[in-house]
Amino acid sequence: MDHPPSLDSLALHEVCITLRCDGGCFWNRHCRGPDGPVFAPGEGGHHFDPREPGRVRLAGGDPFRHGDLVGWARWARQQAPGFLEVEGPAASLVDPGVVARLVEAAPDAVQAVLPTLDAAALLALTGRSVDPAALLDSLRAVRDAGLRLVVVVPVDASTAPRLYATVAALRAHLGASLPIVLRRVRAEGAAPWPEVDALAASLTAVVDDPSLSGSLSVDASANWGACLIPRAAWREGMVPLSRTPLRGGDLLAPACETCSLRPRCTWRPDEAPPPERMRPLSHDEALSLHRLSPHLSLEHQPSTQRTRRDRRAFDLPELLCFAPFTSLVMCDTPNAPVPCAESWVRTEMTPAEQAATLGVPVAEIEARNATSYARWGYPSFVPANEDWTIQEMWNGPLVLHMRRQMLGGGPSDRCRGNCRPMLGVEEPFFDALTRPDGELTPEIVANRRRLIEEIRDGRSVLTAHPLELVLGVASHCNITCGFCTGPMGAYGELTERRFDEVVELLPTLMTLSVIGPGEPLMSQRFPKLLAHINDRGYSALQVSLTTNGTLMTRSWLERHANVRFNHIRISLNAGSAATHERMTGKRFFDRLLPAIDALAERKARSDSRFEFTLSCVLSNNVLGDLRNFAEIVDRANANIVVEPMYGNMLGLSPYVRAEKLRALRDECAAVSEAFEVRNPKVSRAFRAMEQFASERLRTRRLAVLPQH
User: Does 277 score more than 60 pLDDT?
Assistant: First the structure.
């Protein structure tokens, strides 16, 4: 099994519980031989802040065999770790008593350090004579005992040439699900970086062998720069990258100056790097690595210059991003409200983290959660808890946490790598603070001035209201697209209580965005809200809407002529009636085309500040129809969003089967080429999806794309 997805975000605390070991492994800095001391649980003054759960690794000479492992595990859990692992020499696992000790300690993972499965080499490297077959059986016994097993391969000049054979033996006996981690070992007194050539050859051989697919990564604290590993050897997890752009930092070598990966490169070796071996990565190479990282956006262009606008010109503080101070997103009611797109933010917060942010005891948070669960069926700090008002959400724990980190220089540790402001692609929240006063109402101007003053004063708790609100209004949808279940009536409906709160906020809002989670035009109260906006006017309020379009008509648009729509997105997901009907089971496509025509006409009017977008999720349903979809986009002069299918509902993902993925790649390439001159925007969108499919085929990653 793999580590949990959030493991790499936890700080690592390594705790040495013993210096005793019966072997002599050259990579083990804690080893003091068979007479080395052992430590009592808690000895050594180790302390962890329970408000910041981390990853605790019990290590040492040989903690598998020596020391009070169970006692240390009990002590570690009292420190509230987010993840507890034990690391020791794999050779010790052949002792059945060791496996019993591990089962009793019950860590979240067992990391077995194994340099090779060659018996003679194993004896020379560890000083212990172990039968490789017995060693493999003991690894299987650890896993059969219900423990999460990870094999760590220390890599130096002696083990790198054997790496292919080691991985092949582990895969043959333990399968592709076994996580294997490579950890660089510094060779004292040897020529610098002596293992690089052998490592490159071994990794290339591993990648070239389809039978060796599976989890193979490097230790983030002891690894190699991407410039030292040949592109043919790149695979998912091989090169750790920063989730957010790194600013500043010293150059490791002259090659770094022109390397397109530099903003994301986390390589900070503990010895001088070999400049003669370091090769700067091109734009395309950097983009290929980005696509191999689970944290980074498919759309990111590595060398794209940040669109950061001059804060001083508007007398604004030098914040990296203003979203936590301008915007509140509460469209998915079971999840915490966020300041921007939900897929851009890591929303999970423990009660301890929430308590620390709000400055209250953990017991108070737990009591609030208990009350909320009893009444609403959800924890306290989510919009589904209707006792929590929008103004309280605006100063909720997650938003406060992100504000404080932005005030400290940013980015927030909650920002995911696909955040477009973090990537430098755009600054969608800056306009809310810089739009001219003359375009706004006195209520908005007064609220915005108060907000800017509070930002300048460095306040995280705001009395000013948000300028932008993203709202969920519907719990049902009238179609089923195959790649989306929607809330199925379980959550998301705009309630009367929330309706009244939104109406109170409207005079100071600049933007109201409505985005599901069901189909907004099926909402019970959204029509009432639109009618209110239409009748009142709200001359400075811009409204954005995401819809499947099947209930939108020309007369509907005319009826809401006083609503200042600035953007409407239709999730089309098809290019023909046959495809749309196959996807939804309903004959609604003919309803969509007149709505698209009406939106195109609205965009064409010179006096209308209005954009609209047609989007398509690349599922098996739409294969063969992408050219037709592109034609509709081009004819309507619409913006375009083409995105991969996440998950694999009904087996519709083309990303899990090579023949489907090849077909998708080829079709995207053909559409991109057909529109290269005619509509570059359409061409670029499909070219990006072609490149993404090509990279997954090249690296043989036929797997479900994880949900945001």
Answer: yes
- pLDDT tens digits along 553-599: 999 999 999 999 999 999 999 999 999 999 888 999 999 999 999 99
Q: Give the whole-angstrom CA distance, residue 369 versus residue 381.
A: 8
Residue type, 96: P
Cα–chain-centroid distance for residue 654?
21
14 Ramachandran zone, left/alpha/beta (phi>0; psi -120 to 50):
beta
Residue 167 has which token pair? 């991985």
Per DSSP bridges, beta strands 149-155 and 639-644 are unpaired
Residues 25 and 61: beta-carbon distance below 8 Å: no
Burial 551-589 (b: 16+ CB within 10 A, else e): ebeeeebeebeebbbbbbbbbbbbbbeebbeebbeeebb
Whether the CB-CB separation of 301 and 287 falls below 8 Å is answered with: yes
Going through 578-654 in order, the beta strands assigned E by DSSP cover: 611-618, 639-644
- What stretch of H or E contains 544? strand 542-547
Report the DSSP pairing between strands 55-60 and 83-89.
parallel
Report angle CA 133, 134, 138 to the nearest 5 degrees. 120
List the Cα angle 683/685/689 in 5-degree steps: 110
Pairing of strands 180-184, 216-218: parallel
All structural domains of the chain, each given as residue ranges with its CATH number in brackets, are 7-223 (3.20.20.70)
Q: pTM of the predicted model, to two decimals?
A: 0.63
* CA–CA separation, 325 and 267 (whole Å): 33
For residue 232, the tally of other CB atoms under 10 A from its CB is: 13
pLDDT band of residue 297 (cuts 50, 70, 90) is very low
Residue 236 in this model has a pLDDT that exceeds 80:
no
The Cα 20–Cα 546 span in angstroms is: 63
Indicate the burial class of 45 (C-beta count within 10 angstroms; 0-12, 13-18, 19 or more). exposed
Closest CA to 152 of 190, 188, 114, 118: 114
For residue range 82-128, what is the model confidence (pLDDT) as tens digits?
Answer: 789 999 999 999 998 999 999 999 999 999 999 999 999 999 988 88
